[in-house]
Every structure is written in structure tokens, then in C-alpha cells.
Amino acid sequence: MRTRDPQRALKPSRPSAIIAILFSSLALLYATTLLLPGSPSSSPLPNNSCDLFSGQWITAPRPSLYDASCPFHRNAWNCHRNGRDGMASINAWAWVPDGCGGSPLPRIDPAAFLESMRGRRIGFVGDSLNENFLVAFLCALRAADAGARKWKRKGAWRGGYFPKFDVTVAYHRAVLLARYRWQPVENSSTTLSGDGLKGIHIVDVDVPADDWVNVTKFYDVLVFNTGHWWGPDKFPKETPLVFFKEGKPIVPALGIRDGLKVVLKSMISYIEKEVPKTTLKYWRSQSPRHFHGGEWDQNGSCLFTNPLSAGELDLWFDPSNRGVNKEAREVNSLIKEAIDGSDIRLLNLTHMSEFRADAHPAIWLGKKGAVEIWGQDCMHWCLPGVPDTWVDILVAKIKHDFGT
């Protein structure tokens, strides 16, 4: 197990009698308006130079808003219940964004946020990393509404309803965003052949997956992602992706990355056409993996006790180094190109997450024999953990963007 010395903590900067009281009262009144979606002058961001996505982690332990008993947990990410070593250490770090005053990012106020979103709905669409995000969000929000209950209508894979505030937050599983289906080789209408070919996964690049196609007008906020399934580990040469358009194979056949480009362009076009302009639309950038010493099926490990240093990030993630964790930045470049010019906002959580090699479930998966079958989980995140900071950033962005 590799260990590192803790990073040097930076002390957060700290910013007279009738005037001070008057100023505080006005500030409180103003802060209240920041929570109202649609207010004309709202921005929880301190200034225009505040960059929530760039910064550093400092040691600043803060109690979590939830524990292992949260009913929205998913077993494999419930690291407290699974006995993961070092959970206190994982949650002993706070994100300090650049240009935001030198203090840690404020934690979500669940009650204030839910009140500001009264009667509204927030949807996540994508793969299990968006589900990981959702679970952290649901568990944090439940701190303000103990009567929260599970919600699974409108085709949602899972979700929660907060009756005290009439707020719904849900996840629609659509790992490629586009529709795909299995076709055995003996039934294939394509000319594909080869030793060991078992069949193909047909991807209709111009058709959204059924899981989210009918919910585009239901949500007030939508958070999309894809990318983690676009690799040979999910679709090896025996069961490849084959890309179709208008019901026919694309000729010449597309490789997996070119197929991703086409799907991104098509799905973003659909979102812009079908999702109301008043809906806030975000695209979450890739969640970086932290496999060390090999891929997930080659004894790759993430038994780290501290975050990576800034000087280590390019060694791990720069595609030019051809490491096993390069895919996040590679896919991000395609995502940024695809959403450019659209009204979809990039929720760039990759850089801040790249540091956190210490915060994955690793070998504590909550199921006997899981490591022998699936290897260590160095992709998803322990909860509570890093996705709670994603939640803090998303909430700040929603409050800001609803007010612009």
C-alpha cells in the first residue's frame, strides 16, 4: 500500500457596531434571494473570478450530513457499513476553489436548497457514476426531510421524493444515452464475422434510450453523462458495438470513439430540440478512475491513504502517457467539443476528482467474493465522500444559474 504525507493545509482567510449589524442584516436578506430560482440578481459565487472546478484539497474535517443508515444508499458504495479502512481520512479533506476567497467550498444547506426548489424536479441521466452522484444528493437532502421516500415513476431507475418541500430527485439509467440492443450473430443483418464473434450490440445513434426519452419536459434540472461504458472492457471484440442510423448500419463501420462522437452530437441535438429552454441542463464531465498497477481485471489497485499531489496528476491522466486512467481526459475532449455552442453547461468535476485516489471503495464492496470476480472498485466513490463535494458544486451552480 502506498502512502503519502498529508498535503500542507492552507489556512482559510477570514474576512465593526451599528454599521456591522446593518450590513449583516442586509447580507442575510440578499442571501435569501439567492435561494429563489428566477430571482433577477442571484449568484452564490463570490465574484466572477471564482472557479468552482479548479482548486486544491486541504485538511478540514467536517461532519457528514448522513451515515450508513441512509435508505438511499447502494450497498457497494456504503463504505461505512462495509467496514472500509480510513473513512475518517477520506472525509477529512475539503475543496478550496480558486479565486473564491481562499475558504473551503460551502456545504449544501439541505433545507434552504429544498425550499428554494419547492415544487421542482431534478433528474440525472446516464451511467452508474451519475447514480453515485444521485445517491450522495439524496442522502444529503434527506437531512432536511426525514419523511423522504423512494420514488420510481416516469421510468426512473431510482429516486427520492421529499414531501415536506414537494421536490423530486431521480436517476434514469442510460449508459450510452442512445438506444442499444443485443443481436446474436446468427440473427445479424450485418456482414460482420470473425472468430469468436457471439453477436453485436446495435446502437441507434439517432434514437435516445427508452429510459429517458419521455421525461425531457418533466424535470426543471437535468444532469447528463456518458463515457464510462465506451471501451473494450464493456464491449469486447466478441460482442462489439455496431452503429446504426435510420435503422441501417453506418458504412463504413465506426470505431467506438468515432461512434461516441456521433452519439454525443445526436443526443445533444435531441436535448436542445426536446428539453424546454427554461430547464437547466448540465453535462457532468468524466469521473476519473484510479487503477494503479494494472486495469480492473489485471490486479489494478487503489489502496491509497492520501490524495495525489498536483504534480502526479499528469502522470496518471495525461493521454500522452498512455496510462490505464487516461480515458477521462480523452472523453472529456469529445464532450467539450460536442456541447460547444449549445445551452448545456459543463459541470467539470474531473480535475477536482483526479486528486482523490484515496476515496474509492477498493476492496470493501459489501459482497463476499466480489473482488475475486470484479477486481477492486477504483472507479465509483465511497459515500460519504467525494460525490458530496460534487453535490455542493451542483447546488451552487443551480442557485447561480436559475438566477441569470
Automatic annotation (TrEMBL):
Domain Trichome birefringence-like N-terminal: 49-100
Homology family: Belongs to the PC-esterase family. TBL subfamily.
Protein name: Trichome birefringence-like N-terminal domain-containing protein
UniProt domain Trichome birefringence-like C-terminal: residue ranges: 105-396
Pfam families attached to this UniProt entry: PC-Esterase, PMR5N
An example Gene Ontology CC term for this record: Golgi membrane
Primary localization class, coarse: Golgi
Entry annotated with the keyword Repressor: no
Highest taxon above the source species: Eukaryota
InterPro entries, per database record: TBL, TBL_C, TBL_N
Membrane-topology annotation of the record: Single-pass type II membrane protein
GO molecular function: xylan O-acetyltransferase activity
Keywords, in A-Z order: Golgi apparatus, Membrane, Signal-anchor, Transmembrane, Transmembrane helix
Naturally occurring in which organism (per UniProt): Dioscorea zingiberensis
Subcellular location: Golgi apparatus membrane
